[in-house]
Amino acid sequence: MATEYQQVGTEIKYREETQTYEQDLGYETVSICKPKFIFFEMVGLRPSTPHWVFFDGIEVTKWVNTSFNLDSYNNAPINSLLRNPGDNYITATSFPAAQGGPTNASGPISTDASGTLSGAFYLQSNDTLSFKTGTKKLTAIDVSILDKQKALSYAEGQFVSTGIYEVYYEQSVTTNVAYEAPIYDWVTVPDPVSPANSSDDNDRGDQTMVTVLGHDGYNYYVTQSHADQMGYGVGGSGASTGISSKNNKQYGADDDDGGAASNAENSKILCNYIYELGYLDKDVWILDEQFGDIVASEDPVLLEGYHAWAEPMIEWMKAGSILSKIYLHAWVIPFTRCWAQHIAHIMEPTKHKDNFAGKLMYNIGVPLSRFIGKHLTNTKMEMRKQ
User: Fold this and answer.
1) DSSP 336-352
2) pLDDT tens digits, residue range 193-217?
């Protein structure tokens, strides 16, 4: 009795899936002004006279620096903190020191000789000092209280602040989703029946492998039963089975073997070769063998092209030269393992992860080998016509 790695059943497993839900709740009005530098210029005041500055009725003279003017804002870079201070000065208790500090931290500021007062007012917004949005007045007055009736000089301007922000609700929900996963194990099976024609890895039991002419004019290397089922080599001009000419020799077939086209033990394909050397896992090798069976049955032209270059390379590596050993271990073994891993993924994608290098080799090697196979087939047809 023999053992094989087979699917023996299924089991329920679970995987996490996360979905995010978002609900738009509309818009709300921004209620508090954000930190900002407000640039101002007031004219017509009493010349060279001390003045106090008020914003929305609150005395803010220590939050003013008179070394700035409107050009200070207009000429500032787009990323300047004068344009958008953000939260950089959120802890400041007067005009930010990084921008020069207040003109007078504990008293009034004076107009110039022409009666002009200009500068920048830093509008603070934190837990200690903040202002509501809306229309606000910025006032300069020559008395320490905001009482115009007692003042001889005052000027004021309006500052408007508005804003809205979008309100939405977002929720992520993670659930366990059940799925059916295959179970694999080693099982005991009857010993395989020895093939009648050879001990080749590509034999199909006791069915003889033959080369026949397909309906499309190409030679196909298939089992006799498959050729009969498809009607290959029947009724067509030049149809043939069992080609034995040296010029039409298939995959290492003997000159007098009647066209069995068997692969002798010394002509195994690459995955078989590195498996024999112990560099390929058995479960991956089994799936590669199954894939080879499919290719042999459904795309024999591809298989012929593959063997055309793979078998001579294996024979060269078996010769055991220093160069062939380097080539085997530096190139053939690692890249053939990548190829085999990709094939295992094709056969059983839920069990075996894909391999990028193997996928790339597959996408290049398959068309190339099929091209070589078609070229060999066309050459054989031309020779047979002669």
Assistant:
1) HHHHHHHHHHHH-TTTS
2) 655 544 444 444 445 666 666 655 5
